[in-house]
Amino acid sequence: MSSFRTTEISDPQFDASGLRFLTIKTPSLQGRGDICLFVPEVANDQSLPIYILLHGVYGSAWSWALQGGAAQTAKRMIQESRINPAIIAMPSDGLWGDGSAYFAHHQKQFDQWIVRDVPLAIRENISGADANSPLCIGGLSMGGYGALTLGARFSKLFQAISAHSSITTLEHMPLFVEESLAAYSAFTKQNKAIDLLIENRNNLPALRFDCGIDDNLLEANRLLHQQLKDATILHEYQEFSGGHEWPYWQKQVEKTFLFFDRVVKIAY
Asked: Which of 92, 103, 191, 200 lies 20 to 30 Å from 45 when distance is taken between CA atoms?
């Protein structure tokens, strides 16, 4: 029996390149939410890890797969034995405004949609996913903010966090969205990723993040790196050539998959 009011899943005979699509109705969103999935072909009934990738502003469930090439990258890395098979989950953010920022506001629980509903829907509908499947969370830009903040707040659920070109505070949202800062900040007093990371420092998952040297969020990411160093919170931080753009994320998502794979191997 499904945990959700309604569930719609794509027919495997029409799936392309290992992509599946799942739509569920949930009280968290007061409606339906979409999840795009890459599901690898495996020979046995192992508990596959679930790697959640959060998209940025303007995007949706298809963004990581059809703009970022995440499914193709994961498939290639598995075939090359660079990473072990894993399910790549690419949910929508709940589709509020130009971006929900992945926390609860306007009577919708965008955080619970990601940390509770998405894993549960996958475990109930996708072969190879079960209660023993390790969870990791990553994202880009607004999705990087989501990965950092959700990974910190719900640290016991995740093995690892990886973020690219991250928004590090809600004060950055008006740089990208039509909605005002007040539309977000009125619903939370914890709007900086560093505050949540420090608050949950004793239980944090393994953490890495990166940023392009031509990105307008570079200084904010450098500041987060320094703040984590000052707080003696273990993490990895890297800078690469590139800006706040899909060619950068298409390339750097490999770092996320390698990191998740390494952490999951150590934990299990």
From this structure: 92
Q: Tell me the helices (H) and strands (E) count for the chain, helix number first.
A: 9, 9
Query: Could you tell me whether strands 31-38 and 135-140 are parallel, antiparallel, or unpaired per DSSP bridges?
Result: unpaired
| Residue 69, SS3 per DSSP | coil
* Phi, psi of 8, deg, nearest 5: -130, 125
SS3 245: coil
- Whether the model clears a pTM of 0.85, i.e. scores above it, the answer is yes
Q: Tens digits of per-residue pLDDT, 43-93?
A: 666 789 999 999 999 999 999 999 999 999 999 999 999 999 999 999 999
Contact of 239 with 245, CB cutoff 8 Å = no
- Quote the CA–CA distance of 157 and 143 in Å, as a whole number: 17
Closest to 160 (Cα-Cα) out of 250, 258, 72: 258
* β partners of residue 36: 21, 90
| Residue in this structure with the two tokens 């640290």, named with its chain if needed | 155
Torsion of CA 221, 261, 51, 177, to 10 degrees: 20
Of residues 70, 86, 88, the one with CA closest to residue 22: 88
Strand, helix or coil at 257? helix
